Amino acid sequence: MKLPVAELHIHLEGTLEPEMIMALAAKHSIELPYSSIDGLRAQYEFSSLQSFLDLFYANMMVLRTREDFHEITMAYLQRANDCGVRHVELFFDPQAHVERGMDLRDVISGIREALNEAEENWGISHKLIACFWRHAPASEALDLLRLMITEKHEIDGIGLDSSELGFPPELFIEVFDLARANGLHVVAHAGEEGPADYIWQALDLLKVERVDHGIRCLDDEKLVQRLVAEQMPLTVCPLSNIRLRAVDTMADHPLPSMLEAGLKVSVHSDDPAYFGGYMDANFASLMESFNFSTEQLTQLARNSFESSFIDDAAKQERLAEVEAWANQH
User: Which residues of this protein are annotated with the site description Important for catalytic activity (predicted)?
Assistant: First the structure.
């Protein structure tokens, strides 16, 4: 029995494996700047968040139809099921697809159909979160959110992602106010490359329910105290942090310190096609470096479900699965 977990920090477009990129490019007669899968994989050495984002946005142009979004979502969910994921809160970047001329209805319906199939086939529950680009004008995010609300697109929440430095959360207050007023959940990337102050802003100005990444909180003791007191969820992505040079090596990763401090941290894969692995690989790397005890692993799994947006009854069912796993180990 695999450790049951919720995956709460996962970008759909970041699950686009090189093989699928090449296949979709061939399907749509798109000429890529590399001629082989190995040539594409050679691009996956990143010096920073921005160097990754440049390739990330270039590659997603192969997603052209509702069927493509269904296919990529099902491929991710199959891997997630194999890794023990029992609930997923999936991010997607609506601006990336709208600006390419795609109909948002095709994007969302393709994703939703796959999510529903995975729930039916494997019992993986789900939420869908639209992440807005922080490097684009906040007015663009606001206009798109208004459209999504008016057209009643099936989303459960909004997030904030992309380039962090120089784009503080305070720029997006109006967007998040509108989302909350319409009953949407709100999360935001903060404190990955950006300073601890961005986490304060996400909490106080955007009023987020969950902080994505958040590892820079350790730079501010008062912030740590607050996050612990409020049990504010932090979705930490270990392999991502290493590949984007936010942390030097896994042995240097702050996750054990965060867990020890009483922070509500959980483990996620972020953009697994680009960062060296899905949930199983993230846990394997952590185990190799830190040899977590059964109790620590159980706490991380418990935190993941407690940090999710599923209702209390479903949450208790998932937590019972975690306890069953713990009792076997």
Answer: 213
